[in-house]
Design brief:
Length: about 150
């Protein structure tokens, strides 16, 4: 992560540690990492404000079993970072893995002011649901160049 901005590298390192050990109780530390008016977007949510981001993560803990993030690659440059990750969780006892990436922007204080997650819900989730998955796989096959 040698990008000339050691402060952002340290913030990203600390953020990855926090996410890797994230629990409902450790969510209270969100103010150390996100600005009050931070923007967050993923395939299901688009919110502004640290309180709303906290609500999304609290919902994750209520609706999934043992959710965990594993970071794969990290790129930082100036006031931004891009992290690829694997999100593992269980739902009704069945294990799932979602591959994705996060684009983060940091403000002058080193806290996140923009967090955008990129992942494909059709491939990573819906395709794995029995009836819906069969339909999505069929549709995908129709668009594949042969």
């Amino acid at each position: 992560m040698d990008n000339g901005n050691a402060a952002i590298d340290v913030r990203v390192r600390d953020l990855k540690i926090w996410y890797a050990d994230l629990t409902p109780e450790s969510l209270t530390a969100i103010d150390q990492f996100y600005t009050d008016d931070a923007f967050f977007k993923d395939p299901f949510n688009e919110v502004k404000g640290r309180t709303s981001i906290h609500t999304i993560f609290a919902h994750m803990f209520r609706t999934t079993e043992n959710p965990r993030f594993e970071f794969i690659e990290t790129i930082t440059q100036h006031d931004q970072a891009f992290l690829s990750w694997c999100f593992r969780f269980a739902l009704n006892g069945k294990q799932y893995e979602v591959m994705g990436a996060s684009h983060l922007k940091f403000d002058e204080s080193g806290r996140i002011c923009m967090h955008r997650d990129y992942w494909d819900p059709a491939e990573e989730l819906w395709q794995k649901i029995p009836v819906l998955g069969a339909l999505i796989r069929w549709l995908r096959n129709k668009f594949v160049a042969h």
